[in-house]
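Batch job 17 of 40 flagged for manual review because the log was empty.
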Amino acid sequence: MDLVELTKTVQDAIDKGATSVEQIHRQIANMPLDFLARIEQLEAPVNQAKEFQDKTIGSIYETIHNINAKAGEIANELLAKMNPDSTTTTTTK
């Protein structure tokens, strides 16, 4: 496996891992809110809290994916400088 392939493999692993953790994070974070939403008087404020929470969690993991993509771009640029004859266009999002 050359360095370009290794870079892509690491990027893909980070993306998949972050996506998996995000799904678990959302499930766990929703547990107490789902329980509270059963109380009729709390349903509306809990739904607002869930919406805010969902946006916040989404922003966090979007940032992780963006940083991973940028790190891949930087790695590819460095690899291209080390070996100018190879083409390194490996980025994921």
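Reviewer: the log was empty due to a logging misconfiguration, but the result itself is present. The mean pLDDT is 91. Unflagging and moving on to job 18.
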